[in-house]
Amino acid sequence: MKLKIKKIPIATILIAIIFAIGILLFVGAYSKKDALSTYNLWGGKETLVESQNKDIDNDGLRDWEEDLYKTDYLNPDTDGDGYLDGEEINSGHNPLVKAPGDDKIFNPLPLGDKYNITKKVLNSEIIDSILDSYVAQKNEYINDNDINSPDMFAARTKTSTIQEMFLRAIKDAYVPLIEEANKVVLEIPEIFNIEIADKDIKISEDNSTENIKSYLAQVSSILKSDTFFLQQQAFAAISSALKDGDFSKVDSIIKSNEEKLSKAKEIIAPSSWKEIHRKGLELTFLIRNIFISFRDLPNDPLKTYVALDELEKFADRWNQLMEKAIDLANQQGITISL
After folding, report:
1. In this structure, are residues 181 and 117 in contact, taking their beta carbons and an 8 Å threshold?
2. Within 10 A of 277 (CB to CB), how many other CB atoms are there?
3. Which of 41, 53, 105, 146 shows a CA-CA span of 20 to 30 A to 284?
4. Is the pTM of this model over 0.85?
5. H or E element, residue 252
């Protein structure tokens, strides 16, 4: 099976990322500025962001993150070892296993403050620069149009006008934001530069045709399942979520694939297929992390931006691996259709 990804509209995602950054900047910060403060820049999406940040048990994991981690969103310490679930995730430990002995998670979900690139990049200087630029534009608009109250501003000002002011405000800061985001990513390579060691995979010296066919059948059952990340409906769910703000289908796909990844890690690969098996797992975890980064857009838009760049490179890397798999199978007298 050659990987064919219907491209998600890049421009749409970039605009979504920019406004997600804006939401994070303005909610809770905008009221500190002196321009008239009544606005509806994102059509009510401030409420969406608030719901995305809900953490009922105050353990440092948002409720939807708890769902993916399989922790209890009503219990701040799911495994009862005295450490909050969020603390364990951010330190790389397993919130479902009591300490000591809660080994670090194998290829963890890139969620939580430890992996929040936007929080690591957005310093007060950048925030003030963007907000000051926006407020200066808004004050000029208010003066030019003889607006003297928040209600008058809301009645006279088109949403598109407000959006344009914000886009101008963030434009100058956008390039350094992305440059800093890429630097941060290098410090946490487990998000997009995944490496799997020999100890993390299971290998057999049985390279018989029968065993190889059995191995390939197990792999194929995962790759061709309807909810696998590379199926078109998974990408359709991402596009839909970015459009309407409902990430429930994306959550379902991520959870379903976590089970598939668990099965994939338990597959015993013939030694002749070890390198392809290893690279396949690395790429599968990579596409998992790309999906999670898109899902985390309301909380970490800069990670989404980096994920977008990774997605553009992913198809070629996957197709090259599939070609190697087909060539190896042919050398072993086996015909496969991946």
Report:
1. yes
2. 23
3. 53
4. no
5. helix 248-266
Domain that holds residue 132: 13-187
Give tens-digit pLDDT for 19-48. 666 666 655 444 445 444 444 444 444 445
Structure tokens at 294: 């898109």
Q: Note whether 140 and 275 are same-domain residues.
A: no
Helix (H) or strand (E) holding 204: strand 202-204
- Assess whether 102 and 148 both reside in one domain: yes
Residues with Cβ within 8 Å of 13's Cβ and at least 6 positions away in sequence, in order, are 242, 304, 308
**Do 34 and 166 have their domain in common?**
yes
Alpha helices (H) along 62-208 = 63-69, 85-90, 117-121, 124-144, 150-156, 159-187
Distance, CA of 247 to CA of 241 (rounded, Å): 5
**173 and 155 within one domain:** yes
**Low-confidence spans in the chain with pLDDT less than 70:** 1-16, 18-52, 101-107, 124, 337-338
